[in-house]
Every structure is written in C-alpha cells, then in structure tokens.
C-alpha cells in the first residue's frame, strides 16, 4: 500500500491501515469494521496477525475499530498487506484514511431500531474512499448514521443523521456537531436523500475550511450563525417537512441478553490474542459465526442467548451493566507506553475491587498514565492522572484540565490515592439524592468543599 501522507508515523492523528501512528510502544494501526461486521474467522486472523506483528492484543476503539499496537515499520507494512488482501482495508492508505463513517451495528436485528442504515453507510463509505476530492477531510471528522435503536445516541459526530418515525414514514434527522441530544438540528430528509445530504454537508465543510487560516478539524470549530446558514442552504432542496413521533429515545442497553443478541465487553475494550481466539471458538461452539463490534466497546453476538453468559465470564468478559469494570477507562500506561509511569489498568482493577461503591459501573473514572489523556480526551467525572509514579485527582474535567481548580488532590502515593477515593466514595454516598446517579451527584458537588474533605 503506497504511503500518501507526508510522514507515515505522525503523532496526534487517527491511525488507519497504511497510516499508522507512533506511540510509546511502537506503531498503532486500526482496522475499520464498517457497521461493526466481524466474523469468527476474521477475529482469529486478526488475533494471529496482531501476535505475529506487534503486541498480542486487539483493542476496540471509540469508533468501533480494532486497534493493534507495538508494530514496527516493517511489520505494519505486512499487517496492512494482510488487511488489504482479505478485504479489511482499502488498496491505498489515503483511501483507507478517508473512511469517516460509523453506523448502528445492530439495526438489522434490533427490534427498537427504526431503519437499518448499513446500506447507506456502505455507499457513503465507498464514495468517500473513492473520491480524492473528499480525502482532504480531517482524519478526526466523523459521520454517524444512527438507525434509531440508541446504540450510537451518545456519539459526538460532525454530521449526525438519526432515523425518526413520522406520520409520513421513516425519515432522517440531520444535525451537526454533537450527540443525538446535543447536535444542532438542521432539518429532516427522506431516507433516499441521506447520502446526497451528507456529501453536500461534507463539501460545504471543505469549502468553508479552505477559506480559513486556522484549519478546523471538526465542524464545531467553525460552526456559527453564518456557517450554519451555509450548511443549511447547501441541503435546502433536500429537506422535507415532517413531524417526528417519539423522538425521546434513550441510549440502548447492549450488555447481556437483549432482544436480538447477547452483548459482552472486554475490560477496557482490550482482548488478548488468546482471548480473542477463545471468543471465536466459544461463539462457534454455540452455533454463532458472526460478531458485531460496537463503538461502545461492546461485542454483540446476533441471535445469542444467556447460555453464553457463564463461558464469556470465564473468558474475563463483562456481561452485566453493574460490573465495576465498566466504570474504568484507562490507557495502557507503563510499560507499554514509554510516556507512562504507572501500570494504569492493573491499578484501576485493584481500586475497583476495593472500592466497589465508587466504581458502580455508571460513574466513569479515567486512569491516565500521563497528562496526555489518550484514553479519553473529553472530561470524565473522575480522572486519575499519574505523574512520576504519583497521582492527581481531577473531577469533571480532562486529564489536562481546562480549569485547574478541578484538580482536587495532588501528588498522592498509591496508598493515599486509595484512601482519598474511599473518602470520595463516602462523600458521594452521603450527598447523593434518591433520583440521581453518582456522576450527576459529583457534577453538583461544591469543589472547594470537596477539596477540604479530600485533603484533611
Ligand atoms: S495517556 Fe497513557 S497512552 Fe497516552 S501518552 Fe500518556 S501514558 Fe501513554
């Protein structure tokens, strides 16, 4: 696969097959599984190739891709060659990097979904990866096509199209720069207009961006009243008047036995190659040959039943929503990443085991091996940042906080960290109202009071 980027190993971009990214433990590459489609043989192949080429792990990313790490320049080339040969990547690196689409992964068997957007996503994916004029899209740009089942409701995308029902039938709601809840509504279009609408919006973004000195990487960076009007005008001929029925759709529950699938999650979204092969064998033994990989870092077995639960737990998988490990978000930390000073994931697991009231499966706690915050660039209710072997605690902000006042405890040893988190757990237990979650509770706590409680 010829390289078309100025440097093949750039930092700070989204890696893809043929355009890897440098990390502390070598190069990272990602396998794009459109619609989360992955069969048992592909999973075994990927587990084998990861083991032969780099670190023996597969990591699910927040876009539902499978990430392989620890590659050398040579092994990355061979890995990419395997992906292209088996249809898991495009022929050229530039075409592969132009695949910006995610879509609902379960809409063809989810009874709550309104429409299966996979065919739309496929056509759009092909159009983006075969039209060089569209390859200038920044590689973090995201187009999300949600069939209405709720599996992508929380995904922040540049362009969101969400299936809605109306008296006139199924249509798509078009919105910019956000999740289903927060994206700015542009209007509605017919199912058959979706691809044209998205391409017009993409083209408008590129043309606005071309005129800017500071190039935007996401639509939200350039969205204002004037640009919103330009986006709207670009698709006005395709917008229709519909009144959506029942737009209050909540995020889908994916884990465990659901109507249409059995869902499970590897802790931190990471499977060793051995575990991945074990999962493929288990699915096959139960008569299943396909998985769906969700951007929520959950794997679905279409048609799977609760008899999968115990053997999946034996393989270390999470199968219930209250599992403390669901609270944990962590980068690999040391020793996999040279920037890290702590083995973040093992620390997170130990703390979750010792303070189960705090790690209730809902309250997300981000363990970051350094202030870079790779595992979650957004704010988390709690972030633990390692620095030279000690830890800072940050609430409701990022690993490098936008507001330094949110750094509520600093320079803690491991023992001190465990004690402060126990104190925080007790504080939340006392302050929590009957009708609120732990993350809602921590969001309304007085920061100055919290600092006093944690530091005395
Ligand atoms: S956040 Fe984690 S993975 Fe990222 S550079 Fe720091 S230690 Fe490495």
TrEMBL record:
Residues 20-73 form the Nitrite/Sulfite reductase ferredoxin-like domain. GO terms for molecular function: 4 iron, 4 sulfur cluster binding; metal ion binding; oxidoreductase activity. It comes from Zhongshania marina. It comes from the Bacteria. Keywords: 4Fe-4S, Heme, Iron, Iron-sulfur, Metal-binding, Oxidoreductase. Residues 1-23 are annotated as: Disordered. PANTHER family: BLR3264 PROTEIN, FERREDOXIN--NITRITE REDUCTASE, CHLOROPLASTIC. Pfam families: NIR_SIR_ferr. This is Precorrin-3B synthase.
């Amino acid at each position: 696969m010829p390289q078309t980027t100025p440097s093949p190993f750039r930092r700070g971009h989204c890696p893809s097959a043929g355009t890897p990214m440098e990390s502390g433990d070598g190069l990272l590459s990602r396998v794009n599984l459109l619609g989360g489609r992955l069969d048992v043989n592909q999973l075994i192949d990927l587990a084998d190739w990861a083991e032969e080429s780099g670190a023996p792990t597969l990591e699910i990313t927040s876009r539902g891709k499978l990430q392989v790490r620890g590659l050398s320049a040579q092994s990355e080339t061979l890995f990419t060659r395997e992906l292209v040969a088996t249809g898991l990547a495009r022929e050229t690196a530039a075409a592969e990097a132009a695949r910006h689409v995610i879509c609902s992964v379960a809409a063809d068997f989810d009874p709550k979904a309104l429409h299966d957007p996979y065919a739309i996503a496929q056509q759009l994916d092909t159009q983006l990866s075969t039209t060089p004029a569209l390859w200038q899209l920044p590689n973090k740009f995201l187009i999300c096509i949600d069939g209405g089942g709720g599996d992508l409701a929380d995904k922040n995308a540049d362009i969101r199209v969400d299936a809605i029902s109306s008296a006139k039938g199924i249509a798509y709601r078009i919105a910019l720069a956000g999740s289903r809840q927060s994206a700015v509504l542009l209007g509605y279009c017919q199912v058959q207009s979706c691809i044209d609408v998205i391409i017009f919006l993409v083209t408008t973004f590129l043309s606005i961006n071309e005129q800017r000195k500071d190039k935007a990487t996401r639509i939200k960076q350039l969205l204002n009243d004037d640009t919103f009007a330009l986006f709207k005008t670009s698709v006005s001929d395709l917008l229709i008047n519909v009144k959506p029925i029942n737009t209050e759709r909540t995020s889908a529950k994916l884990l465990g036995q659901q109507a249409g699938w059995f869902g499970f999650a590897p802790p931190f979204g990471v499977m060793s190659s051995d575990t991945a092969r074990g999962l493929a064998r288990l699915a096959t033994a139960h008569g299943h040959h396909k998985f769906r990989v969700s951007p929520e870092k959950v794997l679905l077995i279409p048609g799977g039943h609760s008899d999968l639960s115990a053997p999946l737990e034996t393989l270390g998988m999470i199968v219930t929503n209250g599992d403390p490990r669901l609270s944990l978000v962590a980068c690999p930390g040391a020793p996999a990443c040279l920037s890290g000073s702590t083995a973040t994931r093992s620390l997170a697991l130990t703390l979750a085991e010792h303070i189960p009231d705090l790690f209730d499966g809902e309250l997300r706690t981000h363990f970051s091996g350094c202030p870079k915050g790779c595992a979650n660039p957004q704010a988390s209710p709690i972030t633990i940042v390692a620095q030279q072997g000690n830890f800072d605690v940050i609430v409701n902000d990022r690993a490098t906080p936008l507001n330094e006042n949110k750094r509520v405890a600093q320079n803690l040893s491991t023992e001190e960290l465990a004690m402060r988190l126990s104190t925080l757990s007790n504080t939340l237990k006392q302050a929590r109202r009957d009708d609120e979650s732990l993350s809602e509770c921590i969001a309304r706590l007085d920061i100055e009071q919290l600092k006093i409680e944690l530091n005395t």
